[in-house]
Amino acid sequence: ASLFTAIEMAPRDPILGITEAFNADKNPNKVNLGVGVYYDDNGKVPLLDCVRKAEAQLMEKPTPRSYLPIDGLAAYDKAVQELVFGADSAVVQEKRAVTVQALGGTGALKIGADFLKRFSPDSQVWISDPSWENHRALFESAGFVVNNYPYYDAATRGVNFTGMLNALKEMPAGSIVLLHACCHNPTGADLTEEQWTDVINVVSQRGLIPFLDMAYQGFGDGIEEDGKVVRRFAEAGGPLFVSNSFSKSFSLYGERVGALSIAAVSAEEAARVLSQLKRVVRTNYSNPPIHGGQVVATSLANPELRKLWEDELAGMRVRIREMRQELVKKLKEKAPGKDFDFVIKQRGMFSYSGLTKEQVGRLRDEFSIYAVDTGRICVAALNSRNIDAVVDAIAKVL
Ligand code: PMP
Predict the structure, then answer these.
(1) Residues with beta carbon inside 6 Å of ligand 1?
(2) 151 half-sphere exposure, CB direction, 13 A CA radius
(3) What is the distance between the alpha carbons of residues 256 and 269, in angstroms, rounded to a whole number?
(4) Beta bridge partner(s), residue 210
(5) What is the pLDDT of residues 179-190, one digit of tens each?
(6) Other residues' Cβ atoms within 10 Å of the Cβ of residue 27
(7) For residue 385, how many other CB atoms are within 10 A of its CB?
(8) Mean pLDDT throughout 265-290?
(9) Can you point out the beta strands (E) in the chain?
(10) Is 132 designated active site?
(11) Does the structure show a pLDDT above 90 at 62?
(12) What is the mean pLDDT of the chain?
């Protein structure tokens, strides 16, 4: 027997499995609603003009590719920190925040998890039920016990807020609570401002450690609006972790651009935190790649490119909203008596559609329309050419 003899095949990633089945499907009218990517109305991943222009600027003055500092490009970290907390915020002004460039939102969560395991080893982690499936795996592989707090209520197709708040009230001090800052993945159900107030109060009173995951800033109600919850947590004081990602908002999935920001109580504390965070990065991958960070830093710092980015992001947000509205309107015609109005209230790329596993199976087998077994569909994969076929098929399997 060799080292590998006893190794079992790892379970297939459920979402990548959908894409494999979709790719193998020969039906020319197939639709993949299982993805976690924004497609434009032509069904393509967009290359944003702001990215194209930032890259053109960078090409004019090519730079040698030495290593970046462990915490990444300084201009990137600064721009991201100001985006996440607000340039005028107390945490930024008082230099109490630290931001390190990370390999996408996933990389930010990973270095945050490793950092927390070093300095709060006995904490347990709490994620929403359900959550992005990698949240549990990331924190478990960092060595934490991961629990669920109640979140989605299938009956109301909204948030079981009482259940969530009660769970927060019972967590031991020092528990790490992972919260989706906006555009909850997979449900699309977000908290209201008043509900966030209650969450922030309980988190502060009980001494919980909030970890906000913001992978979809700008896809809900706007860049400012979606980021507001981060600022509110920062104003409440106490330790705060924020992972953010530009995979979706800059359509830079493969460049792996994200960041981890931590708010501390003083500049002196922040300096110590940063020094330790760098050790975590150093032992994971030494330092991040240059290109994506340069593109984002250039776009955020240049007023013209920044405006372009904000407009292009608004375009993506508005298109998704229109698809939500079209979906509901067309389902009203094709499946009268069924209520899909909740789809309009949901935020971000996804919708928990309420479709059962059986219905999802029929969509796939009879219509070549692919969704996640849980009923999650990517609204950003709908477009003016495939929506009628999708609606017809849903109406038939209901
Ligand atoms: N958090 C959530 C909630 C996500 O949905 C995703 C990506 N789908 C990520 C983090 C990771 O983002 P990235 O692709 O930038 O690693």
Answers:
(1) 36, 104-106, 132, 180, 185, 213, 215, 245, 247, 258
(2) 24
(3) 29
(4) 177
(5) 999 999 999 999
(6) 10
(7) 12
(8) 98
(9) 31-32, 97-103, 125-129, 146-150, 152-153, 158-159, 176-180, 209-214, 240-245, 257-263, 350-352, 369-370, 376-378
(10) yes
(11) yes
(12) 97
The token pair at 175 is: 């528990």
Contact between residue 351 and residue 324 where contact means Cβ atoms under 8 Å apart: yes
pLDDT band at 13 (very low <50, low <70, confident <90, very high): confident
- Grouping H, G, I as helix, E, B as strand and the rest as coil, residue 242 is strand
Comparing 13-17, 221-225, 312-316, 328-332, the range with the smallest average pLDDT is 13-17
Q: Write the single-letter amino acid at 193.
A: E
Residue type present at position 274 = L
φ and ψ at 355, to 5 degrees?
-65, 140
Q: How many Å lie between the centroid of ligand 1 and the Cα of residue 285? A: 19
Residues forming a β-bridge with 241: 211, 262
Residue 98 corresponds to which tokens in the numbers above?
Answer: 């630290």
Give the distance (Å) from ligand 1 centre to CA of residue 135.
Answer: 9
> pLDDT tens digits, residue range 107-155?
999 999 999 999 999 999 999 999 999 999 999 999 999 999 999 999 9
- Which residues face 377 on adjacent strands? 351
Query: CA nearest 342: which of 369, 355, 324?
Result: 324
- Cβ atoms within 10 Å, residue 198: 16
Residue 213 bears catalytic tag: yes
40 among known catalytic residues: no
The model's confidence at residue 228, banded by pLDDT at 50, 70 and 90, is very high
Residue 1 is predicted with a pLDDT of 87
In whole angstroms, how far apart are CA 355 and each of 111, 229, 328, 395?
36, 31, 14, 11
Distance, CA of 98 to chain centre:
20
Name which of 290, 383, 307 is nearest 49 in CA terms.
307
> From ligand 1's centre to the CA of 334, what distance in Å?
34
254: pLDDT strictly greater than 90: yes
ipTM of the complex: 0.99
The DSSP secondary structure of 162-225, one letter per residue, reads HHHHHHHHHSPTT-EEEEESSS-TTT-----HHHHHHHHHHHHHHT-EEEEEES-TTSSS-HHH
Catalytic residue among 132, 226, 309, 330: 132
Residue 239 near residue 262, CB atoms below 8 Å: yes
Asked whether the whole model's pTM tops 0.95, one would answer yes
